[in-house]
Amino acid sequence: MSLSRKTLAAILSVISNSTLVVFKLLVGFLSGSVSVIAEGIHSANDLIASLIALVSVRIAERPPDREHPYGHGKAESISAAAEAILIVGAAIWIVAEAIQKILHPKPVEHLGWGTVVMAASVVLNVLVSRYLFRVAREEDSPALEADAHHLATDVYTSLGVLVGLTVTWLTGWHVIDPLMAIGVAVLILRIGLSLTMKSLHHLMDAQLPVAEVSRIEGILNGETRIHSWHNLRTRKSGSIRHIDLHIVFRNDATLLEAHQVADELEKRIAEELAPAHVVIHVDPYDPEKAERKRASYR
Question: How far is the CA of 123 from the CAs of 24, 45, 95, 246, in angstroms?
């Protein structure tokens, strides 16, 4: 069975994070560096997030069925929400461990190995995150976008730990290590809260971005064969946009004409915002209803 581009990208992320988790935690526990351990936990969260993203992408690609007539795209938004919860929990754990290191300091050993692992982590995550961002953008995948953000964050936090280890190595100030771990945790927490809000935005069926709604309105306003339009509603499920609205025809239009125009508009809007599912309801022109609507906007 052939795998989609989104699935292959998610598998690459799982392999990359699995490698980093093993090496970071191994070196972290051998050296006693809480910042390296924190980075290992961060990568472990990225690994769990990658696994969740992989499963959600596979579910989201399933076609609509009797129980899910709108498809399974929401699986990607649920994935992003789960990843956000994991990130917040990891940040709290790292802060607790770092505070213990500050209160009960221990020397950090094998700093050279820690430095090598952090440098390798930066290079690997730069390459993988850029690839995931590109696939997420081209395939319009919320799950892969969240996964890419995790890896991009890992780049910055790994750089921070790398600097901290280098300073500790040169100065012998071991307090730098837990302080850097707290800095990593704050950044992780910020990303987690941001992803939480974004995933809830999609799960609550918020409308499409203003720029996309404007493209729909431009198509409708440029259609001279209809009298007017109203009740435009939009939402997104995974990478698929769902759009429905009403168009109004003058009373001298035939049912066949109205049906043909509605079909053409559905096709044009769907092509403009592909992938999209568009449903248009046809209304006859009612002067009294139109006047009431105009009065409500005064």
Answer: 14, 19, 26, 52
CA distance 148 to 135: 10
Residues 125 and 254 in one domain: no
Write out the DSSP string of 98-148: HHHHHHS------HHHHHHHHHHHHHHHHHHHHHHHHHHHHHT-HHHHHHH
d(CA 95, CA 214): 45
- Tell whether 236 and 113 lie within a shared domain: no
Q: Which DSSP state fits 228?
A: E
Buried residues in 22-49 as b, exposed as e (16+ CB within 10 A)? ebbbebbeebbbbbbbbbbbbbbbbbbb
Task: Select from 193, 6, 223, 220 the least CA-distant residue to 91.
Answer: 193
HEC per residue, 197-219: HHHHHHHCCCCCCHHHHHHHHHH
- Residue 76: CATH number of its domain: 1.20.1510.10
Query: Do 173 and 226 share a domain, yes or no?
Result: no
What's this model's pTM, rounded to 2 decimal places?
0.62
Q: What is the domain count for the chain? A: 2
Mind listing the pLDDT tens digit for each residue in 12-27? 888 888 888 888 888 7
Verify that 184 and 113 share a domain, yes or no: yes
Query: Tell me, what CATH number does 245's domain have?
Result: 3.30.70.1350
